[in-house]
UniProtKB/TrEMBL annotation:
The keyword Repeat applies. GO terms for cellular component: nucleus; proteasome regulatory particle, base subcomplex; proteasome storage granule. One of its GO terms (biological process) is proteasome-mediated ubiquitin-dependent protein catabolic process. It holds the Pfam family PC_rep. Residues 283-336 form the 26S proteasome non-ATPase regulatory subunit RPN1 C-terminal domain. It comes from the Eukaryota. InterPro entries: ARM-like, ARM-type_fold, Proteasome/cyclosome_rpt, RPN1_C. Keywords: Proteasome, Repeat. This is 26S proteasome non-ATPase regulatory subunit RPN1 C-terminal domain-containing protein.
């Protein structure tokens, strides 16, 4: 493929996905990538680095990626897009790093070059996937009215990604306003329609979040699907708005239900009362601290929003998994006695 073809960008990405989360084992391949054609060398290097350290929270790699974002590009170079996405991929591991990365991306918007602007909305989307944080929503709303259509289209699709499967009323309202604002521009209207579809993903029953088990495990398949889609969005005009809009289907890899469903030992559905509330960080606290706050009691199956946690409201059953998420098998508690 010629270097000018938009599909060429998927070659380094395919290489990077082989090393997804593998950390140091990428180094030999990264050395070999330095011998490639100079037009794609830096792009390949950034992609390999960001894939290898995705979800690790490695601060030194984030600094390295930021240093690359601060460079002034020569004509024809375009490696800063994957570098900005890389910042999000590495720092999505835990809450604190995630908030710091969001602030860093705000600074990139103020001081970065034009081509960084195209990728910042996509990086914000990856950090808050299916988790509509107010400050990120406002930033993306501002960028969705940008005069540069590349920035606007990236911001509109990112609005869809942060609200994916949440039915978030505020984002749905923003997208309705955007569809009347861009009613004459077919390409941006197409982006608005995609975003609207994402917000109401599976009628609000699905999520795109690659983390599960209370942010303890990262699904590499889901992350690969998201990263592939975001890399395609870096070439918005040629890929998503051009001949290759089929890349939208990569998002299917990340879709999973966000219901909590309880079943008995024969896998028959079992409806039990559960308390659902905002998760509280109890790491290192003595005794049996409360793990959720501001809870409501519902009967399963029940939907869990981003940052929600569930616990059983009765002692008749014992869950076979410490984390109540997805499908959970319950067995009867032998010591349970009903109050007369």
């Amino acid at each position: 493929a010629s270097i000018k073809s938009p599909l060429t960008k998927f070659l380094p990405l395919g290489l990077g996905l082989l090393y997804l989360g593998k950390q140091e084992s990428v180094e030999a391949t990264a050395e070999v990538s330095k011998t490639f054609n100079e037009k794609i060398r830096k792009y390949c290097d950034m992609t390999l680095l960001s894939c290898a350290y995705a979800g690790t929270g490695n601060v030194l790699k984030v600094q390295n990626l930021l240093w690359n974002c601060a460079q002034h590009l020569e004509k024809g170079e375009n490696y800063q897009g994957p570098a900005v996405l890389g910042i999000a991929m590495v720092s999505m591991a835990e809450e604190l790093g995630l908030d710091m990365a969001i602030r860093t991306l705000e600074h990139l918007l103020q001081y970065g070059e034009q081509n960084i602007w195209w990728s910042v909305p996509l990086a914000l989307a990856l950090l808050c996937i299916s988790n509509p944080k107010i400050n990120v929503m406002d930033t993306l709303s501002r960028l969705s009215h940008d005069t540069d259509s590349e920035v606007a289209s990236a911001a509109i699709i990112s609005l869809g990604l942060i609200g994916a499967g949440t039915n978030n009323a505020r984002i749905a309202g923003m997208l309705r306003n955007l569809s009347s604002y861009y009613y004459k521009d077919a390409t941006l209207l197409f982006c608005v329609r995609i975003a609207q579809g994402l917000v109401h993903l599976g009628k609000g029953m699905l999520t795109l979040n690659p983390y599960h088990s209370d942010r303890f495990l990262l699904s590499p398949v889901a992350l690969a699907g998201l990263v592939t889609f975001l890399h395609a969005c870096l070439e918005m005009k040629a890929m998503v708005l051009g001949r290759y809009h089929i890349v939208l289907y990569f998002l299917v890899l990340a879709m999973q239900p966000r219901m909590l469903m309880t079943v008995d030992e024969n896998l028959k559905p079992l409806s039990v009362p559960v308390r659902v509330g905002q998760a509280v960080d109890v790491v290192g606290q003595a005794g049996r601290p409360k793990t959720i706050t501001g809870f409501q009691t519902h009967s399963t199956p029940v939907l869990l929003a981003a940052g929600d946690r569930a616990e059983l409201a009765m002692e008749k059953y014992i869950p076979l998994s410490p984390i109540l998420e997805g499908f959970v098998i319950l067995k009867e508690n032998p010591d349970y006695q009903e109050d007369s």
